[in-house]
Amino acid sequence: MSAHPKDDTLMDLADGGGSPDARRHVEQCASCEARVAEARAMAELSQRVEVPEPPAFYWATFRNNVRRRIAEERPRAAWRGWLLPLTALSVAAALALVSHLPQSWVSAPQVAGVPSAAPGPPLLAWSPLPPADEDDGLAVLEGLAASGGVDWDEGRGLGSFLAGLSDEDSVALAHALRQNGGEGVL
Amino acid sequence: MELVLSLPFGLATSDADRSAPSLETDGALVLACQRGDREAFDRLVERYQRGIYRLCYRYVNHHEDANDLAQEAFLKAWRAIGRFRGDSSFATWLYRIAVNACLNHRASRRAPTQELPEGLPDPASGAEARIVRDDEAERVREAVSRLPDKQRATLILKVYHELRHDEVAQILGSTVGTVKSNLFHALANLRRRLDERGEAES
């Protein structure tokens, strides 16, 4: 007798198909014959089990619910459309500001009388922005600020100047830059 | 315009469908949906709601869960219909979404039940002799709903929705051989579970 057919072949036989070789095997093998008969019986039993049918009005309600939920989705889709670029812009602006802050501002404060921890190996740093002296974007911003009559200590850099502004000064600076063609930037 | 008299997978799903065949193909309705026509999607919902609900019901054996899953499947289809390129039939695509919703459905917090809206006709009281007795039907449905996920999905699509093996394979992202094996194991497991429950009750 040939080797037992695989399960997918036995399923073919239960469906009424299968190769002549496989059929011959099953005719001679009580074990495989029982498995095929069991699969066929279970498939027939399953087919006779109906899903309880909801009343006719259920389908209209179902459709209404889908319609309502789709209608509720539309504003959300539009809202998502402008949220993503806005979020990206905010993150980029935050990165730009942090990357131009003086080192002392981003280091942990030194508490008097408490020895600082031994310096460990330098941390690897990565920034999507170029160094300040190679940052063309910063140069553009500085140009706009200068044309807007903004005075800052060029020795400290624009980044530290911006970080030290009060809320009122920040608003005034933004206003001045808009007046001088920076509207698309700020 | 092409007259559609039969739908893929025998899925004429609503009373309206049975009384008046739709003149619009799935493809035409999908194109309209892709232009933002929600009425067209409503027609597709009407066309497939019964098939999708029944698929979900067989998966979870619970009306409320099946209702939630079927609605979720249609919502996901609406969100994704802009990306539907017709590589498969719309029915296959929609079934795949529904099956994925079922596969992602974690074990229901609710106990399996036949709780249904009021006015539901008793399936055992119908004249159709081929329908098994109510208690036996519930035993089978309950056993099906406890099969392993892939086996359950395969059995439901193949046995209840009468899809071909290659159609089931397409929906489940599987091979024809795997579908046949899974179906064979599902039927063997179904027998074992029914036997175990019978022994426990006796």
Question: What would your notes on this structure say?
Answer:
The complex is a heterodimer of chains A (186) and B (202). Chain A is mostly helical. Among the domains of chain A are: 7-47, no CATH class; 128-186, no CATH class. Chain A is built from eight helices and no strands. Chain A is elongated. Chain B is an all-alpha fold. Chain B folds into two domains: 7-109, Rna Polymerase Sigma Factor, Chain: A (Orthogonal Bundle); 130-202, Orthogonal Bundle (Arc Repressor Mutant, subunit A), CATH 1.10.10. Chain B has nine helices and no strands. Chain B has helices at residues 15-19, 26-34, 38-60, 63-80, 90-104, 134-145, 149-160, 165-172, 176-201. Chains A and B meet through helix 1, helix 3 and helix 4 of A and helix 3, helix 4, helix 6, helix 7 and helix 9 of B.
Short description:
The complex is a heterodimer of chains A (186) and B (202). Chain A has helices at residues 7-14, 20-28, 30-47, 56-99, 103-106, 136-147, 158-163, 167-182.
Q: What is the SS-derived class of chain A? A: mainly alpha
Termini separation of chain B comes to 60 Å
Poorly predicted spans of chain A: 123-128, 182-186
**N-C termini distance of chain A:** 83 Å
Percentage of residues in DSSP E strands of chain B: under 5%
CATH architecture of the largest domain in chain B: Orthogonal Bundle
Oligomer: heterodimer
Percent strand of chain A: under 5%
Layout: helices, strands, pairs:
The complex is a heterodimer of chains A (186) and B (202).
Chain A lengths: L6 H8 L5 H9 L1 H18 L8 H44 L3 H4 L29 H12 L10 H6 L3 H16 L4
Helix pairs in contact in A: 1-3, 2-3, 6-8
Chain B lengths: L14 H5 L6 H9 L3 H23 L2 H18 L9 H15 L29 H12 L3 H12 L4 H8 L3 H26 L1
Helix pairs in contact in B: 2-3, 3-4, 3-5, 4-5, 5-8, 6-9, 7-9, 8-9
Question: Which structural traits does this protein have?
Answer:
heterodimer, A: 186 residues, mainly alpha, B: 202 residues, Rna Polymerase Sigma Factor, Chain: A, Arc Repressor Mutant, subunit A, 2 domains, elongated
